[in-house]
Amino acid sequence: MKNDLVTREVIRGWLDTAAEEMQNAIIKSAHSMLIAEGRDATAALFDDQGRTLAQASSIPVHLGVMVGLGRNIARRYPASVANPGDIYITNDPYAGGTHMPDIAVCVPIFFEKSLVGYALTMAHHRDIGGLLPGSVSLKARDTHAEGLRIPLVRLANNHAPCESIWDLITACSRTPRSLRGDLSAQIAGCRTGERRLGELFRRWSPAIVREASASLMDYSERLTRQAISLLPRGRATFVDYLDDDGLNPSAAPTRIEASVEVINDEITFDFTGSGNSVAAAINNVAASTTAIVYYAVRTLTGDSVPSNDGCYRPVRIILPKGSIVHAEYPAPVGSRGVALKRIEDVVLGALANLAPDKMCAAHSGQYTIVSVAGCDYVRNEPLIGHMGGPYAGGNGAQPQRDGIDCSDHGATNGSMVSIEDSESRMPLRFRKLELWTDSGGAGCLRGGLGYEAEVEWLGGEITATLRRERMRFAPRALQGGHDAPLCRTLLKPLDGSPKELPGKIDFIMRSGDIVHYWTTGGAGRGLPRDRDQSKIVADVLDGRVSLEAARSVYGLDAEQLVGA
């Protein structure tokens, strides 16, 4: 097959399609709406050494973690240990995972009795035990309070399910039926990958597939090095802050710092200067931070580069141990997403300082998740979930165009759970969900808008949880643009006065209570008064920019609105 580029590309397409089909199998067969609607799941294929062959277009913070996890699985279950019909499972954050709700399921793939690869899936589960329903409590003081920690073990051995392991895992969950259903969906995804990779080996010989896979990895490495070599040489740094320590709204902010250095065709990300890990469960293990870096590198190369092991060879990462970006056992990490979005901001911010014409201004930098926990008296089961609607606010202004409104196209890349689905599954009503006027940072290129939502609770008493950011530190602009505004949350009890809520809090909601929240947009780029007047007029007419801001910030001539 040597130098047969056509065959190589056909095999690449086969691998990519197989990974996407794995992903679809999970989504289509999942039990919980977090996976079925929110698409909080990921799939990938690996060779017999645990090297990434192909990844689905899903969640970068899962995909990056799975790069290392695939190697761990190959070391633990190599050809001499793995059996056909095996299933492996783990969720250990300190052995290649992320946080406990993200469970990885893997199936070894055999062809003619030889191990040829692994199919791996990862999905976020509704509940895996721990301090509070949902298994993402900010108040957990160590990882043992966050739920069941599963080492890398067999869930099935040579086609025989390990029923004791199944029983143990489901016994620790408040939603055992959902957990079993979603794990079964992951297994279906792995079996799909197993079937498709087997078909690939039957169509071409193992020698050809291995040669093509190695060639594709080398190709991805060459293209990634080429993209890095086009960046300016030197070092750039970006610093941003979490609002607090995750527990006390008036606590000192938590610093996250990243420097990026380009030397020839290699790139180094150095997080020296980041704050220490904190008592709250907002820390990130090394694998999570590494995933953010891998995502950032992939933004430089684009979709044309095959997503495999070769993409990450020119990348070096320095993570200070014991910091919020490299927490050490047994630091709690259940609500890692709070800090994860800021890690993304500083990594992309450092690249923007190095090469501003290639990168966006800061995105909203947080996602609004209103978790609820109580009792579903209709179904007579625990009520655990999220209120739904958009998670993320707006994206930052792009190099050549405005930012995207209300989009989670970043490292988390999730899909919103529709408000219709939320209202059909939970006793709540969305009274308002609309773009938030003036929430996109002003600029010659405007930041994408965030949103405003009002949700009324219609059921019995529940505990609601906020895990929000950007209440004190706004998304940063580029090249003279304006930062986006701060987020805000208001609780309107049926029988009391409205109350401002901090970003991270557990609070009680009863029937008739309303939570009203504003989620910021992305930052702007370039001087606002350099923006095309016709675009400003269109923004005013569309409700994206207020007339007051159009005049005072953008310098709109009022006559431009006449006849518009």
Which key terms come to mind for this protein?
564 residues; alpha+beta; seven-stranded antiparallel beta sheet; 11 helices; 20 strands
Strand element count: 20
Structural class by helix and strand composition: alpha+beta
Number of helices: 11
* Helical fraction: 25-40%
Approximately what portion of the residues adopt beta-strand conformation?
15-25%
Major beta sheet summary: 7 strands, antiparallel
- Radius of gyration of CA atoms, rounded to a whole number: 24 Å
Mean pLDDT: 94
Spatial gap, N to C terminus: 63 Å
* Global outline: globular
Describe the model.
With 564 residues, the protein is of the alpha+beta class. Among the domains are: 5-220, no CATH class; 360-531, no CATH class. The chain contains eleven helices and 20 strands. It has a seven-stranded antiparallel sheet, with helices on both faces. Strand 17 and strand 18 (499-500) form a beta hairpin. The termini are far apart.
Topology (SSEs and partners):
Layout: H1 5-29, H2 33-36, E1 41-47, E2 52-55, H3 60-76, E3 87-90, E4 102-111, E5 114-124, E6 153-157, E7 160-161, H4 163-171, H5 176-203, H6 206-229, E8 234-242, E9 254-263, E10 266-270, H7 286-301, E11 315-318, H8 337-354, E12 370-376, E13 381-386, H9 419-425, E14 428-435, E15 451-457, E16 462-467, E17 488-492, E18 499-500, E19 504-509, E20 514-519, H10 533-542, H11 547-552
Parallel strand pairs: 10-11
Antiparallel strand pairs: 1-2, 1-5, 3-4, 3-6, 4-5, 6-7, 8-9, 9-10, 12-13, 12-16, 14-15, 15-20, 16-19, 17-18, 17-20
